[in-house]
Amino acid sequence: MTKHRPFKKRRDRARRVSSAFFVIVLLSMLTATTAARAVPVTWSEPEAEFRLLLVLRGNTRWPAKAGFVSFCTSPYRPETSAFTVRRLDGVPVGTRRLWVRDGEPVKLMFDTSSGERSYYLYIGPKDRLEEKSFEPQSGVILETRPAHAFRIGSVDQFRKVWEAAGEPYGRSVVPKIFDGINRFGPSTEFMSRYRGWFELKEKGAYEIATVADDLAFVLIDGRTVVEWPRGKNLWRHRSGEVHAEVELDKGVHEIEYLHLQQHHRSVAMTAWRKKGADRFHLMQDGVYRPVAHFDPSAWMAADPDRQPGLVTWRIVDSLELDDRAVVRAEFRVRPEDEDLRYRWTFDDGTVVDGAAVTHIFLRPGRRRFRLQGLDGRWTEQEWKGTVRVHRRWEERFRWNEEIFDALRPHLMERDLASLPVEDFTYFMEWASSAHDLELLGRSVDEARRRADGLKRDAPEALLRIGAYYARARKHEYEEAEQWFRTVIGLDSAPAPLKDRARLELGALLLKAYGKPQEAQQVLKAVRPPHLSNRLQRRLRFLDAERLLIAGDTGRAREAFERLAAGTRMDSRSVLRRRATAQEAAAALDEGLTEEALDRMRGLMLEDPRERLDLDRIDLLRRIYLRSGDLLRARVLCASSLPLAVSDRERSELLYALADVYDRMGREDRARETARRIIDEYPYSAAASRAAGRWK
User: Fold this and answer.
1) d(Cα 51, Cα 297) in Å, to the nearest integer?
2) Which of 137, 171, 240, 525 lies in disulfide reach of 209, CB 3.0 to 4.6 Å?
3) What is the reported pTM?
């Protein structure tokens, strides 16, 4: 008996394994049968071209009578497509389009009152696929539009301006009425309309409050209950001082919030409390009737060869300067097929391999891409798409040094030679605004190679080449002058561009060469209507500068005073300008000459009288010397001599001029100027220094 026990143990173990295997197979068959009942293989919409499985998100509010899904749109044109949602058993449910635009994620709401946690979304041609309408009456729906009028005093006026505003920026489900930005576009000069639904279990008196900037109306069930008029002080009334009492019945109520934003900060928010309560509470997610969020998965095409996966994208970050932005976006194929090698080709010529890739767009707009799936036999599957590229609206600050430091190495490695001319010229302007001379230098080198084509297709790039060589740290003025004159002489250059080139050339002739008569001839040809307000002001500033360099100090003072008319002279503004000068001096001490020069230019354009201040002139001279721009330093010192009123001031300016001549290698002029100091101001400190330096 003992001998056979090992065999018995093995036999018993085999029986247990066999029984377990049988149970697993039986459970698998039951699961498969259940799944077959739950997820039919039938295609419920014969006219549909694609189907997407929508699955309830794990952390969403549930149960809910309305669902929301957002998904990317390739490989089809969403504006020519219909969208219909069905339960897994094929029963159709109501659908509401929130946002359908080519190149942007589609946003839909649909009826989830059946309690199902998964649905099929069918997509097909508009003329063959029927959509069942749906009014969600849940959550909060936000839409924003551009604002073209700001004289609004009533809800009716707001609605008229709203209807005339044109194409919306965007529309989506949001958790609450609480924003400090425009979620879908620029955060200035826009209008917002929020519609939300909340449900009360009992009748009662409530107080509704708002805080806004600039204008807001709060309506409950179509009746205006609170108004925030334009001009109301945001900080003095931010604790619910602007509120109204309203009697609300048991049941569902609609809240509508109309908001107008003009400039500066944007604020839009609502709060409430039961009458008699101590404090207001924000009307947020738990207040409104729930909307369940669904995620797209299990993409399928009626023709399996048309689409091997779902393409998704998102804007990661962006950097904007002077209304120009560089944007980084992420692209992904879901689900990834391990048997395919993915290759992305973007419309700027960039080719990248991988199921998930990141691409930097050097120009916003509607951008195209092509995705290829290659298998081991080099059989190719291909689909195309369009993406609307824009700066990341959620970023309150358009410039972030950390993002720039992360993107800069990629920008430096970018092959500019392969860029389309639109992308290249746009990036060149952006690099100029960024004040990164290395990035801009790469653009200029490429622009010079493309010069013949740019003369015909993008002459503004030639103006940027000249501006690059005219910069203080570059100061290759003969090269700059050549490019400015090239633009002026081009038949393909529009008149406004030629006037900008004349403005740049006139500034160069004045400030680098000190030639007021020649500059006057160039600037006389400029037609001010072709210039922006800022450039028109610069033209008047250059005319005053011309008078000063020509020695007509009296008329120059009058011109600078006229330019300064309207400049704020209250103590706060004066202190701010003084702080700007101190910031320029600090930047110079740190070796940031470009930043220091920009601050001084801005200061003098804001208050042109700063150009007549000898302390500011001395700071500007030191900036020029630090950057090696001896030509501008010479003209600055020579033209400022008539502004000095005391012997000390004149002797110090003459010594500074002699120093510039000496640095330029013009020893004869340096000694001549030093002799003048000694002869005219023999007892000055400058004369003592000049005698010791130029014996």
Assistant:
1) 10
2) 240
3) 0.79
* Cβ pair 260, 232 in contact under 8 A: no
Q: What is the pLDDT of residues 288-324, one digit of tens each?
A: 999 999 998 877 888 766 655 678 899 999 999 888 9
Q: Which residues contact 668 (CB under 8 A, 6 or more apart)?
A: none
What letter represents residue 517's amino acid? Q
Q: 335 or 379, which is more confident?
A: 335
Residue among 433, 429, 313 nearest 363 (CA)? 429
Give the separation between CA 476 and CA 500, rounded to whole angstroms: 19
Residues belonging to the chain = 695
Q: H or E stretch including 8?
A: helix 5-38
pLDDT tens digits, one per residue of 196-230: 999 999 999 999 999 998 899 999 999 999 999 87
- Cα–Cα distance for residue pair 290/255, rounded to 1 Å: 15
Any idea which residue has 């100027």 for tokens? Answer: 673
Q: Quick check: 103 and 388 in contact, CB under 8 A?
A: yes
668-686: average pLDDT: 93
Largest pairwise CA distance in the chain: 133
Asked whether 125 and 82 are in contact (CB, 8 A), the reply is yes
Mention every residue, 6+ apart, whose C-beta is less than 8 A from residue 212: 228, 232, 234, 259, 267, 268, 269
- Confidence class for position 686, pLDDT limits 50, 70, 90: very high
Q: In 3-state terms, what secondary structure has residue 634?
A: helix
**Calpha distance 72→105 (Å, rounded):** 4
Q: DSSP per residue over 228-276, as a string?
A: E-TT--TGGG-SS-SEEEEEE-SEEEEEEEEEEE-SS--EEEEEEEETT
Strand, helix or coil for residue 315? strand
Mean pLDDT to the nearest integer, 80-89: 92
Q: What is the pLDDT of residue 311?
A: 83
What is the side-by-side order of every strand in the sheet holding 356-361?
A: 310-321, 324-334, 356-361
Which residues lie closer than 8 Å to 143 by C-beta, 6 or more apart? 168, 170, 171, 192, 193
Q: What are phi and psi of 103, to 5 degrees?
A: 85, 5
Q: Is the pLDDT assigned to residue 679 strictly greater than 90?
A: yes
Question: What is the phi/psi pair of residue 582, to 5°?
Answer: -65, -35
Phi/psi-derived region of residue 595, left when phi > 0, alpha when psi is between -120 and 50, beta in every other case: alpha
What are 596's two structure tokens? 């220091």
Amino acid at 633: A
- Collapse the DSSP code of 600 into the 3-class scheme (helix H, G, I; strand E, B; otherwise coil) and give the result: helix
Number of other residues whose CB lies within 10 A of the CB of residue 244: 15
Q: In this predicted structure, what is the pLDDT of residue 323?
A: 85
Compute CA 273 distance to the chain's CA centroid, rounded to the nearest angstrom.
37
Report how far apart, in Å, the C-alpha atoms of 346 and of each of 47, 74, 94, 349, 350 are.
31, 14, 37, 6, 5
Q: At 80, which amino acid appears? A: T
**pLDDT at residue 29 above 50?**
no
